[in-house]
Protein backbone atom coordinates (compact mmCIF):
# COMPACT_ATOMS: atom_id res chain seq x y z
CA UNK A 1 0.00 0.00 0.00
CA UNK A 2 2.87 2.32 0.90
CA UNK A 3 4.64 1.47 -2.36
CA UNK A 4 1.49 2.20 -4.35
CA UNK A 5 1.06 5.57 -2.62
CA UNK A 6 4.71 6.38 -3.29
CA UNK A 7 4.25 5.55 -7.00
CA UNK A 8 1.25 7.89 -7.17
CA UNK A 9 3.24 10.66 -5.48
CA UNK A 10 6.14 10.19 -7.91
CA UNK A 11 3.74 10.15 -10.87
CA UNK A 12 2.12 13.36 -9.64
CA UNK A 13 5.51 15.05 -9.19
CA UNK A 14 6.55 13.92 -12.68
CA UNK A 15 3.41 15.45 -14.15
CA UNK A 16 3.99 18.67 -12.22
CA UNK A 17 7.61 18.80 -13.44
CA UNK A 18 6.46 18.18 -17.02
CA UNK A 19 3.83 20.94 -16.75
CA UNK A 20 6.35 23.43 -15.35
CA UNK A 21 8.78 22.53 -18.16
CA UNK A 22 6.10 23.12 -20.80
CA UNK A 23 5.18 26.46 -19.21
CA UNK A 24 8.82 27.59 -19.16
CA UNK A 25 9.33 26.49 -22.78
CA UNK A 26 6.26 28.45 -23.93
CA UNK A 27 7.23 31.61 -22.05
CA UNK A 28 10.92 31.34 -23.01
CA UNK A 29 9.92 30.90 -26.64
CA UNK A 30 7.65 33.93 -26.47
CA UNK A 31 10.37 36.09 -24.92
CA UNK A 32 12.95 34.87 -27.45
CA UNK A 33 10.49 35.73 -30.21
CA UNK A 34 10.43 39.36 -29.01
CA UNK A 35 14.24 39.41 -28.74
CA UNK A 36 14.60 37.87 -32.21
CA UNK A 37 12.47 40.59 -33.75
CA UNK A 38 14.64 43.34 -32.29
CA UNK A 39 17.98 41.76 -33.14
CA UNK A 40 20.28 41.98 -36.18
CA UNK A 41 18.87 43.36 -39.41
CA UNK A 42 15.36 43.34 -37.98
CA UNK A 43 16.18 45.87 -35.28
CA UNK A 44 14.04 49.00 -35.22
CA UNK A 45 15.97 52.26 -35.29
CA UNK A 46 14.40 53.92 -32.25
CA UNK A 47 16.67 56.93 -32.68
CA UNK A 48 14.89 57.59 -35.95
CA UNK A 49 11.37 57.34 -34.55
CA UNK A 50 11.69 58.55 -30.93
CA UNK A 51 11.16 62.15 -32.01
CA UNK A 52 7.63 61.21 -33.10
CA UNK A 53 6.70 59.41 -29.87
CA UNK A 54 6.08 61.54 -26.82
CA UNK A 55 4.22 60.60 -23.63
CA UNK A 56 0.85 61.72 -25.01
CA UNK A 57 1.25 59.56 -28.12
CA UNK A 58 2.29 56.54 -26.04
CA UNK A 59 -0.73 56.94 -23.75
CA UNK A 60 -3.09 57.17 -26.73
CA UNK A 61 -1.51 54.07 -28.29
CA UNK A 62 -1.89 52.24 -24.97
CA UNK A 63 -5.55 53.28 -24.82
CA UNK A 64 -6.17 51.97 -28.36
CA UNK A 65 -4.47 48.63 -27.60
CA UNK A 66 -6.24 48.26 -24.27
CA UNK A 67 -9.59 48.81 -25.97
CA UNK A 68 -8.62 46.32 -28.67
CA UNK A 69 -7.98 43.54 -26.16
CA UNK A 70 -10.81 44.50 -23.83
CA UNK A 71 -13.19 44.03 -26.76
CA UNK A 72 -11.59 40.66 -27.59
CA UNK A 73 -11.95 39.57 -23.95
CA UNK A 74 -15.60 40.65 -23.81
CA UNK A 75 -16.17 38.89 -27.13
CA UNK A 76 -14.76 35.62 -25.75
CA UNK A 77 -16.79 36.03 -22.57
CA UNK A 78 -19.91 36.52 -24.73
CA UNK A 79 -19.14 33.38 -26.74
CA UNK A 80 -18.62 31.24 -23.63
CA UNK A 81 -21.80 32.66 -22.05
CA UNK A 82 -23.73 30.46 -24.50
CA UNK A 83 -23.22 27.62 -22.01
CA UNK A 84 -21.40 29.08 -18.98
CA UNK A 85 -20.94 32.45 -17.31
CA UNK A 86 -17.32 33.42 -16.68
CA UNK A 87 -15.83 36.56 -15.16
CA UNK A 88 -13.94 39.22 -17.09
CA UNK A 89 -10.71 38.10 -15.40
CA UNK A 90 -11.27 34.47 -16.43
CA UNK A 91 -11.94 35.55 -20.01
CA UNK A 92 -8.78 37.68 -19.93
CA UNK A 93 -6.70 34.79 -18.60
CA UNK A 94 -8.02 32.46 -21.30
CA UNK A 95 -7.64 34.99 -24.14
CA UNK A 96 -4.13 36.22 -23.29
CA UNK A 97 -2.86 32.85 -22.06
CA UNK A 98 -3.95 31.14 -25.28
CA UNK A 99 -2.37 33.98 -27.30
CA UNK A 100 1.02 33.23 -25.71
CA UNK A 101 0.61 29.46 -26.08
CA UNK A 102 -0.35 29.69 -29.77
CA UNK A 103 2.24 32.23 -30.92
CA UNK A 104 4.29 29.64 -32.86
CA UNK A 105 1.39 27.72 -34.40
CA UNK A 106 0.14 28.26 -38.00
CA UNK A 107 -2.70 30.80 -38.09
CA UNK A 108 -2.90 30.56 -34.27
CA UNK A 109 -4.45 27.10 -34.52
CA UNK A 110 -2.93 26.29 -31.12
CA UNK A 111 -5.39 28.75 -29.59
CA UNK A 112 -8.17 26.18 -30.01
CA UNK A 113 -6.44 23.62 -27.82
CA UNK A 114 -5.10 26.19 -25.36
CA UNK A 115 -8.53 27.61 -24.57
CA UNK A 116 -10.00 24.12 -24.23
CA UNK A 117 -7.53 23.41 -21.39
CA UNK A 118 -9.40 25.90 -19.20
CA UNK A 119 -12.61 23.85 -19.38
CA UNK A 120 -13.69 20.30 -18.53
CA UNK A 121 -12.94 17.70 -21.18
CA UNK A 122 -16.62 17.28 -22.04
CA UNK A 123 -16.71 20.94 -23.20
CA UNK A 124 -13.74 20.62 -25.57
CA UNK A 125 -15.77 20.40 -28.79
CA UNK A 126 -17.95 23.29 -27.69
CA UNK A 127 -14.92 25.50 -26.94
CA UNK A 128 -13.29 24.64 -30.27
CA UNK A 129 -16.55 25.51 -32.06
CA UNK A 130 -16.96 28.81 -30.18
CA UNK A 131 -13.37 29.78 -30.93
CA UNK A 132 -13.99 28.97 -34.59
CA UNK A 133 -17.12 31.14 -34.59
CA UNK A 134 -15.19 34.01 -32.98
CA UNK A 135 -12.30 33.81 -35.45
CA UNK A 136 -14.65 33.40 -38.41
CA UNK A 137 -16.60 36.51 -37.43
CA UNK A 138 -13.34 38.49 -37.27
CA UNK A 139 -12.34 37.15 -40.69
CA UNK A 140 -15.78 38.03 -42.09
CA UNK A 141 -15.44 41.62 -40.86
CA UNK A 142 -11.88 41.82 -42.23
CA UNK A 143 -13.09 40.58 -45.62
CA UNK A 144 -16.09 42.93 -45.67
CA UNK A 145 -14.02 46.01 -44.87
CA UNK A 146 -11.25 44.74 -47.15
CA UNK A 147 -13.61 44.70 -50.13
CA UNK A 148 -14.75 48.21 -49.19
CA UNK A 149 -11.09 49.22 -49.06
CA UNK A 150 -10.46 47.82 -52.53
CA UNK A 151 -13.49 49.71 -53.84
CA UNK A 152 -12.20 52.95 -52.32
CA UNK A 153 -8.58 52.66 -53.39
CA UNK A 154 -8.64 50.52 -56.55
CA UNK A 155 -4.90 49.74 -56.58
CA UNK A 156 -5.08 48.63 -60.22
CA UNK A 157 -6.74 45.42 -59.07
CA UNK A 158 -9.23 45.36 -61.97
CA UNK A 159 -11.94 45.96 -59.41
CA UNK A 160 -14.90 44.89 -61.52
CA UNK A 161 -13.28 41.48 -62.07
CA UNK A 162 -12.93 41.17 -58.28
CA UNK A 163 -16.58 42.04 -57.69
CA UNK A 164 -17.72 39.67 -60.44
CA UNK A 165 -15.59 36.81 -59.06
CA UNK A 166 -16.83 37.42 -55.51
CA UNK A 167 -20.47 37.49 -56.65
CA UNK A 168 -20.04 34.25 -58.60
CA UNK A 169 -18.46 32.55 -55.57
CA UNK A 170 -21.35 33.64 -53.32
CA UNK A 171 -23.94 32.46 -55.87
CA UNK A 172 -22.24 29.07 -56.27
CA UNK A 173 -21.50 28.33 -52.63
CA UNK A 174 -24.68 29.62 -50.95
CA UNK A 175 -26.84 26.66 -52.15
CA UNK A 176 -24.00 24.26 -51.33
CA UNK A 177 -23.86 25.56 -47.77
CA UNK A 178 -27.61 25.05 -47.43
CA UNK A 179 -27.49 21.44 -48.64
CA UNK A 180 -24.34 20.73 -46.60
CA UNK A 181 -25.80 22.05 -43.36
CA UNK A 182 -26.29 18.52 -41.95
CA UNK A 183 -22.89 17.13 -42.96
CA UNK A 184 -20.71 16.60 -39.89
CA UNK A 185 -16.90 16.87 -39.83
CA UNK A 186 -15.32 15.79 -36.54
CA UNK A 187 -18.69 16.25 -34.88
CA UNK A 188 -19.27 19.78 -36.24
CA UNK A 189 -21.78 20.93 -38.82
CA UNK A 190 -23.17 24.18 -40.23
CA UNK A 191 -26.44 23.34 -38.48
CA UNK A 192 -24.57 23.44 -35.16
CA UNK A 193 -23.33 26.96 -35.88
CA UNK A 194 -26.72 28.30 -36.99
CA UNK A 195 -28.40 26.68 -33.99
CA UNK A 196 -27.17 29.62 -31.89
CA UNK A 197 -29.58 32.55 -31.71
CA UNK A 198 -29.39 35.46 -34.14
CA UNK A 199 -28.68 37.81 -31.20
CA UNK A 200 -25.70 35.64 -30.28
CA UNK A 201 -24.20 35.98 -33.77
CA UNK A 202 -25.08 39.65 -34.15
CA UNK A 203 -23.41 40.59 -30.85
CA UNK A 204 -20.38 38.54 -31.85
CA UNK A 205 -20.15 40.45 -35.14
CA UNK A 206 -20.51 43.77 -33.31
CA UNK A 207 -17.57 42.95 -31.05
CA UNK A 208 -15.54 41.93 -34.11
CA UNK A 209 -16.45 45.05 -36.10
CA UNK A 210 -15.75 47.53 -33.29
CA UNK A 211 -12.45 45.80 -32.51
CA UNK A 212 -11.49 45.96 -36.19
CA UNK A 213 -12.23 49.68 -36.32
CA UNK A 214 -10.24 50.28 -33.14
CA UNK A 215 -6.97 48.91 -34.51
CA UNK A 216 -7.68 50.45 -37.93
CA UNK A 217 -8.03 53.90 -36.36
CA UNK A 218 -4.92 53.19 -34.28
CA UNK A 219 -3.03 52.71 -37.56
CA UNK A 220 -4.64 55.89 -38.89
CA UNK A 221 -3.53 57.74 -35.77
CA UNK A 222 0.06 56.62 -36.33
CA UNK A 223 -0.07 57.88 -39.92
CA UNK A 224 -0.85 61.34 -38.52
CA UNK A 225 1.86 60.98 -35.84
CA UNK A 226 4.46 60.34 -38.54
CA UNK A 227 3.16 63.29 -40.56
CA UNK A 228 1.97 61.18 -43.48
CA UNK A 229 -0.44 63.36 -45.41
CA UNK A 230 -3.33 61.77 -47.32
CA UNK A 231 -7.08 62.14 -47.35
CA UNK A 232 -9.13 60.11 -44.88
CA UNK A 233 -10.85 57.85 -47.46
CA UNK A 234 -7.56 56.87 -49.14
CA UNK A 235 -5.86 56.19 -45.82
CA UNK A 236 -8.67 54.04 -44.41
CA UNK A 237 -9.19 52.27 -47.73
CA UNK A 238 -5.50 51.37 -47.85
CA UNK A 239 -5.55 50.16 -44.23
CA UNK A 240 -8.64 48.01 -44.90
CA UNK A 241 -7.01 46.56 -48.04
CA UNK A 242 -3.78 45.86 -46.16
CA UNK A 243 -5.49 43.90 -43.37
CA UNK A 244 -7.55 41.92 -45.89
CA UNK A 245 -4.59 40.92 -48.06
CA UNK A 246 -2.45 40.06 -45.02
CA UNK A 247 -5.24 37.94 -43.51
CA UNK A 248 -5.62 35.65 -46.54
CA UNK A 249 -1.92 34.71 -46.54
CA UNK A 250 -1.38 31.56 -44.40
CA UNK A 251 1.29 32.20 -41.79
CA UNK A 252 2.66 31.41 -38.36
CA UNK A 253 1.42 34.11 -36.00
CA UNK A 254 4.88 35.33 -34.99
CA UNK A 255 5.55 36.10 -38.70
CA UNK A 256 2.43 38.27 -38.81
CA UNK A 257 4.44 41.49 -38.48
CA UNK A 258 6.60 40.57 -41.48
CA UNK A 259 3.57 39.75 -43.66
CA UNK A 260 1.64 42.87 -42.71
CA UNK A 261 4.83 44.88 -43.13
CA UNK A 262 5.48 43.65 -46.66
CA UNK A 263 1.85 44.18 -47.72
CA UNK A 264 1.81 47.66 -46.13
CA UNK A 265 5.09 48.64 -47.79
CA UNK A 266 3.70 47.58 -51.16
CA UNK A 267 0.38 49.42 -50.79
CA UNK A 268 1.63 52.61 -49.16
CA UNK A 269 4.65 52.58 -51.49
CA UNK A 270 2.23 53.18 -54.36
CA UNK A 271 1.13 56.31 -52.52
CA UNK A 272 4.75 57.52 -52.25
CA UNK A 273 4.95 57.07 -48.47
CA UNK A 274 8.46 56.63 -47.08
CA UNK A 275 9.21 52.96 -46.39
CA UNK A 276 10.83 53.52 -42.99
CA UNK A 277 7.75 55.28 -41.66
CA UNK A 278 5.44 52.41 -42.65
CA UNK A 279 7.92 49.87 -41.22
CA UNK A 280 8.00 51.89 -37.98
CA UNK A 281 4.18 52.04 -37.78
CA UNK A 282 3.83 48.29 -38.35
CA UNK A 283 6.43 47.59 -35.65
CA UNK A 284 4.75 49.94 -33.16
CA UNK A 285 1.36 48.32 -33.85
CA UNK A 286 3.02 44.93 -33.30
CA UNK A 287 4.55 46.00 -29.98
CA UNK A 288 1.35 47.44 -28.54
CA UNK A 289 -1.14 44.87 -29.87
CA UNK A 290 0.88 41.67 -29.66
CA UNK A 291 4.07 41.95 -27.62
CA UNK A 292 2.56 43.63 -24.55
CA UNK A 293 -0.48 41.27 -24.42
CA UNK A 294 1.92 38.35 -25.00
CA UNK A 295 3.98 39.34 -21.95
CA UNK A 296 0.83 39.57 -19.82
CA UNK A 297 -0.26 36.22 -21.23
CA UNK A 298 3.09 34.75 -20.17
CA UNK A 299 2.17 35.47 -16.55
CA UNK A 300 -1.11 33.59 -16.99
CA UNK A 301 0.72 30.66 -18.63
CA UNK A 302 3.15 30.42 -15.69
CA UNK A 303 0.25 30.54 -13.23
CA UNK A 304 -1.89 28.03 -15.15
CA UNK A 305 -3.17 25.10 -13.12
CA UNK A 306 -4.84 22.16 -14.87
CA UNK A 307 -8.41 21.33 -13.90
CA UNK A 308 -8.66 18.59 -11.31
CA UNK A 309 -10.82 15.63 -12.17
Count every helix, treating DSSP H or I runs of 4 or more residues as helices: 12
Major β-sheet profile: none
- The geometry reads as globular
Q: What's the assembly state of these chains?
A: single chain
What are the segments in which pLDDT stays under 50 over at least 5 consecutive residues? 4-10
Q: Helix/strand/pairing class, anyone?
A: mainly alpha
Describe the structure.
By secondary structure, this protein is mostly helical. The chain has one domain. The protein has twelve helices and no strands. The protein is globular, with a radius of gyration of 22 Å. About 2% of the residues have low confidence.
Jot down its keywords.
309 residues, 74% helix, 12 helices
